[in-house]
Amino acid sequence: MKIETTDPLIAFEEEYAALHQKVEEGFLPAEGLSRAAEIRSGLQQYLLNTEAKLEILRLDLLHGDDYEARQAALQEMLALAAERERTKMAYLQRLQALNTAHLSGEKTKRNGKFKDIEIEIGPENVDSGRP
Predict the structure, then answer these.
(1) Structural domain count of the chain
(2) 34 located within any domain
(3) Torsion angle, CA of 25/29/33/35, rounded to 10 degrees?
(4) What is the rounded (10 degree) CA torsion for 120, 123, 127, 129?
(5) At CA 14, angle to CA 10 and CA 16, rounded to 5?
(6) Among 116, 125, 124, which residue's Cα sits nearest to residue 39?
(7) Which domain holds residue 91?
(8) Would you say residue 35 lies in a domain?
(9) Four-point Cα dihedral 53, 123, 99, 103, nearest 10
């Protein structure tokens, strides 16, 4: 039995491309693509920050002075890596929600504005991608 796994980042880019295609075909408003770009930007910023933190922890792990310091760095790395995976999935869910929020027949405007798609994304310090 082979278990198929997909990296959330690959799925995110595929979903973004599908959303872009729907906008070009006129099935979604251009505002949807703008919001998707904000979500994408937020994810990219989060991943850059997380990668920098992980690199610092890797250095602490490799060059730590004592066993306790290396153990602490390892525990922080594992926690941060798990948080990163959960956050990637949350960003993917936000994009999917945005993509499906404008299905035909569904009322997408309220008081002249499109519904805002909100899905909680892990810890409070995660940037939502909004300016």
Answers:
(1) 1
(2) yes
(3) -160
(4) -20
(5) 115
(6) 116
(7) 28-101
(8) yes
(9) 180
The reply to whether 113 falls in a domain is no
Structural contact between residues 99 and 72, judged by C-beta atoms closer than 8 angstroms: no
Residues 55-97: tens digit of each pLDDT: 999 999 998 889 998 999 999 999 999 999 999 999 999 999 9
Whole-model pTM above 0.85? no
What SS3 state is found at 107? coil
Indicate whether 71 belongs to any domain. yes
State the DSSP H helix or E strand holding residue 113, giving kind and residue range, or none if neither. strand 113-114
Cα separation, 117 vs 28, in Å, equals 14
What 3-state DSSP class applies to 81?
Answer: helix
Q: Token pair of 99, please?
A: 């993509």
